[in-house]
Amino acid sequence: MAHTYTNDQGLYEVSLTISQGGCTATFSNFYAPILPPILTLEIANPISAPGAMDGAIDLTVIGKGTFDYLWSNGELTEDISGLGAGVYGVLVTNELGCTAEDSITLAEPEGGCFSVEVVAFDQGKKKNGRRVSRRRSDPAMALGQPQENDTFNFVSLGFGGSITLKLETDLYDDGSYQPDFILVETSFGRADQMCFSEGS
Q1: For 134, which DSSP code?
Q2: What is the DSSP letter of 3?
Q3: Residues near 167 by Cβ (< 8 Å), separated by ≥ 6?
């Protein structure tokens, strides 16, 4: 005689009673079935910038026994890292062959593409040939997100000057007719002003 239990994991007592010729014998045993593991996926480290490969996923497994892991990107460890944007699925198998699956999405952060490093800076002169003032000569002011306020948060190239900046992520053609990159020269205060004048 057989009976299948599809209940929650726990400790079950199984008894067998045999009666024959006026005699009765009972045999008992305890059985703790190993059910499929329970999975919890969390983003351990979000992607820092568009195109970056620094995301990480933490997997927590609840259950008894040993487990094997198979991720959709081919990884075989419990937790994975060095990830770009995408959907990552995992299949967990315990020692009895019971399986559980789950997935999680890593998304790139929203926002623009800003400069993060000054590669080269060769400042020109004013129209009268004099040097540009010190407070307008810090190339680090060209880094990060543009600001629109009445502070010296920009650098002046002067006439004939140049600056080379490294961006925080690679640029690519998205296949649309929209521009992939727009360079905006802002001014002191409002961005729609023609220019900032500090004299000749």
Answers
A1: G
A2: -
A3: 113, 114, 115, 116
Q: From start to end of the chain, where are the E strands?
A: 12-20, 23-31, 38-45, 55-62, 67-71, 80-83, 86-94, 99-106, 115-122, 162-167
- ∠ CA(188), CA(194), CA(195), 5° rounding? 45
Which amino acid makes up residue 166?
K
**DSSP structural state of residue 192:** T
Model confidence, pTM: 0.46
CA distance 103 to 19: 53
Q: Which residues of 171-190 are buried (b: 16+ CB within 10 A; e: fewer)?
A: eeeeeeeeeeeeeeeeebee
| Residues 59 and 78: beta-carbon distance below 8 Å | yes
| Span 37-71, pLDDT tens digits | 899 999 998 887 767 788 999 999 988 788 999 99
How far from chain centre, in Å, is Cα 187?
Answer: 34
- pLDDT beyond 60 at 189: no
Backbone angles phi, psi at 7, to 5 degrees: -90, -175
